[in-house]
Protein 1
Amino acid sequence: MRTLCASTLIGEFFVIGFAGLVAMQTSDLSAAAVWSVCGAAMALCVLLCGALSRRGGVPLGWALQLALIASGLVVPAMYFLGVCFAGLWWASVHFGRKVDAAKAERARLETEPDTA
């Protein structure tokens, strides 16, 4: 799960950075405000990559997805991109857990003595 979720977060890192460039040009917000919010969100993406195996990592990732959708208030294209990334996040968590379970089962079968 960690690899898939981290890949999604790194993609979001770049999208947030590009959205910050768009927000600077199209909104009435100051550059300092835009980059404070975008910088914090980008840092959260990177920090979450390392925290995915910890207890609050996935829920914090969901909070980031909601914030990404909400950023559509400033850059309307982010509504669409936020929903796309929320779908990717769901798929990463859902299928990542299935892959982890299959790997664990395979490892268990490989270490189990042959009873045939």
Protein 2
Amino acid sequence: MSLQAVQAFFANIGREGDIVVHAQSTASVQEAAEAIGVHPARIAKTLCFQGKDTPILVVAAGDTKVDNAKFKQTFAVKAKMLDPDSVLQVTGHSIGGVCPFGLVTDVPVYVDASLKRFTTVHPACGSSNSSIELTVDELKLYGHAQGEVDVCKDWHPALAQ
């Protein structure tokens, strides 16, 4: 159902044909990178956290880790990821296919600065074997991002493409 929701979302903007359903799993960053044929950093992973008053989504590069101090400074709450059942309830997507498209609730979305170094990135499309290639500006637009944040660490600027 989740993939279908994302397909319907992209059909409304004439981009449903850009979604790729892969023969193998794209559930993890490494699996997605192998299936797509890109460096893992170019996988745009969507992480779901409990915000101060509501859950929030942060879309970040695949080679990053959340920096707890930066996260707390930005969102005024400790970084606490939601459990898989809560993620499904908030987004309509299961772990491994979470993305900022076709969401079942109006959860705020933020795009991490770690993605800015790439021309295009590859977020999931609601299933553990789907993706779409988007520019970071398209990711922000189609994901209805509230803005850009800098809450990650351990990413490598030299990987820019």
